[in-house]
Amino acid sequence: MSTATALPGTLSIGLARGAAELRQFFRQKEFVIFTFSLPAFLLVLLGSIFGETLPGTGVTSSQVFAASMVGAGIISTSFVSMGTGVALDREDGTLKRLRGTPMPATSYFIGKLILVAVASVAEVIVMLVVGVLLFDVRLPSDPVDWLTFAWVFGLGVIGCGLLGIAVSGAAKGVNGASAATQIVFLGLQFTSGVFVMISQLPAAMTAVSSLFPVKWICQGLRSVFLPDEMAAYEMAGKWELGLTAGVLSAWCVAGLVLCLVTFRWSNRSN
User: Which of 25, 29, 152, 244 has its CA 20 to 30 A from that of 118?
Assistant: First the structure.
């Protein structure tokens, strides 16, 4: 008499896939160094150039850049790395081989999200270490601020990760996915107040950037790492955390829908 063996569930397979993704990612030393060092390098560069104190706040421009660059680092490791990584998996045949296994697409997505979540945590640690040591960024002491950090981080990673997967499916190959994600990421950094104080940007520009998650992730993190009086330098003159949660949640749903529409196991040429 034979006993049927229960197959592992979608979550279990996804967790195992996530462990494999992490091992593969950290073996690519050059890619890891570039992923983590670029945002830190930009933070050091911009923070060293713009160091004036903002009137009536006691906060320097470099501290504002540091808070915003933490958000940019999260988006880099989720949106850009995810978009490029999935396109590479498709181009080198990894996805096609996985298609031949019982692993569902949902488990593959879970594995990728685990990768970007761990990489984003590491990115945040690197950015905060640089910010604290070089630019006197003060870590919040209020647990409410850390709770805000947690949900902004979680919604940002999920939403941007799903959008990265969607972009990879729309691009023809890994080169196209890399170019598309970098252009979008770079453009939205300039229009969302990462490199320039958002209060100094044209209203029309910020109106457009308000439609995308970069502006809200960085604004949410500025509310965590900067004193309350800095809210006056936001476009609305306040942190708008409720609206931030709503916009980021909407992008998580939109990203999931776009993933389901655009995801492909192989290139169109195959």
Answer: 244
Question: From residue 194, how far is each of 64, 68, 218 by CA, in Å?
Answer: 9, 5, 7
The span from the CA of 85 to the CA of 72, in Å, is: 18
Half-sphere exposure of 199 (CA within 13 A, CB side): 12
Residues with Cβ within 8 Å of residue 255, at least 6 apart in sequence: 158, 159, 160, 161, 162, 163, 165, 166
Rg of the chain in Å (alpha carbons) = 20
For residues 96, 101, 105, 107, the Cα torsion angle rounded to the nearest 10 degrees is -130
Q: Which two tokens stand for residue 210?
A: 């308000």
Query: How many CB atoms are closer than 10 A to CB 22?
Result: 15
Q: How confident is the model at residue 150 (pLDDT cuts 50, 70, 90)?
A: very high
pLDDT at 270: 56
Residue that is written with structure tokens 């923070």 in the block: 47
CA distance 258 to 107: 17
Burial of 205 (0-12, 13-18, 19+ CB in 10 A): middle
Taking each helix axis from N to C terminus, what angle separates 213-225 and 241-262, rounded to the nearest 10 degrees?
140
Contacts of 67 (CB under 8 A, 6+ apart): 131, 137, 218, 221, 222, 224, 225, 226
